[in-house]
Amino acid sequence: MISRIVNILSEAEKFVSSQSSGRSAMLAGLKSRPDGKLLRIAFMASLKNSPYGAIDSIMDALLIKKGREKIKEKVINLYLHRQFAANDPLREYTQRKWIYHKKQLKHILNKEFYKITPVTVDIVPSLECVQNCVVCSNVDWRVNIEDKGWFNKRSRERMMTRRNMFRIIDNIRKGGAKAVVFTGGGEPLTNPNTLDGIAYARKSGLEVGLYTNGILLDEGAIDSLIKSSLTFIRISLNAGSPMVHAQIGGYSISKDYYNRVISSLRLLAEKNRGSGNRCTVGIGYIVNPWNVYDIYLLAKTLKKIDADPRSSGGIAYFAVRPSIVHRNYRGGRQFGEHVFKKAHEIINRKVIPLLKNTGIKVIEVKSRFLAVHSREKPFDRCLASPMFSLVGPDGGMYLCVESYYGHKRCRFGDLTKERLDTIFRSRKHRKIVDNIDFRYCPPVCKMYELNKAFDRINKTDRKTIGYIRNWFMSKSPGRPPAHVNFL
Length: 487
Ligand code: SF4
What we know:
Layout: H1 2-17, H2 23-29, H3 36-47, H4 51-61, H5 68-85, H6 102-109, E1 120-123, H7 139-142, H8 162-174, E2 179-182, H9 194-203, E3 207-212, H10 219-228, E4 232-236, H11 242-249, H12 257-274, E5 280-287, H13 294-307, E6 317-322, H14 337-355, E7 361-364, H15 366-371, E8 388-391, E9 397-398, H16 420-424, H17 427-434, H18 448-459, H19 462-474
Parallel strand pairs: 1-2, 1-8, 2-3, 3-4, 4-5, 5-6, 6-7
Antiparallel strand pairs: 8-9
Helix pairs in contact: 1-3, 1-5, 3-4, 4-5, 8-9, 9-10, 10-12, 13-14
């Protein structure tokens, strides 16, 4: 009976988090379902954000009179365990990592979202790039509307100086963050200080990850990265052939960047394997109409690398996500659903079987594929943004790269001068979070799942939140997932 009630609660929860426009149809459809009456009761109670109250209503409907408190406790325990602690198949992509950060968790469960300071900070060391991708997620600020182009700005604002990089890392560490990711902006390795910055961050005790397009990943860079013992390196490789790579990257095919990246990947896998796989090396693939058929071609290349005894096991995953079109391209109109359906079909029919017996895990980031065409956001505020932040080459802090980077009025601090925690407690930061206008946000972003969870918590009634808080205090959420410090 306990798990029957929990199943009903979980299903009702799914209805609540779906788009409000589809809810009346769902309610109508409940009549014909087994447990339809109970589902309807749970759904109505969940709409009031009271799972605790929903259990009472379900027990009333089931005419349970005896031992109600005990049943309720068991139901809530199992429900929360499933929601927050059960093994998640997506593991390193799960947004449940937040429950392992006690300091932040306390503020979240007290609904004091403004008191949160980031666990992870993205460092943008450079705005330069060797490619010029049409669907670059950073196009918004690389061709910054407000300032009529960063190209007119002084170089300090386009390329982080060595001195500033070290200062920024110090202020991040002192400010309580646990990890940094060197990322775009532009390509992080175009900055000659990036490798030293990574080594410095590691020595300071921070975990480090790197997103790179792999074009500048020569043997010297690979040796330095392996020595620094990064937690992960993700190569963004959005093609399986030289032609498509050049087409998407906006460069002349004569530069032969694709083959250069594949050779670097092979060498990285080999050296990573040689070091005992200390680093998680993965491939990030963003699907769009030009490269959808290349997914399988790239999978074949990855299989070959994995089949080579020198590099076998050196690549951990192949993660596929949809391209999100930003407002400076196609007026923000997303690519058609048929593109992503095709990708889903190729991944499931061909890529997963092909890579089944290799060490390469195929990850289709489903939440993003599902949300890319949604019209409504399943949350009304970006409460999760303080968990994670972004610093530009000049030390300026911004909420996220997706929407607000580079806009002067959205800059809320300078990490070359102040500590991370001081910046996050400032009035300016609070003002910016309060004034986020979702019209400028893409349909789905890095904080999407986390925002959904925080929004639900924010709207949950006091009694239930009290129970959840006690539950967290008394229970261990289990072994943390891999890369727990990278939100
Ligand atoms: S919801 Fe908007 S402001 Fe918040 S992280 Fe996403 S894109 Fe950035």
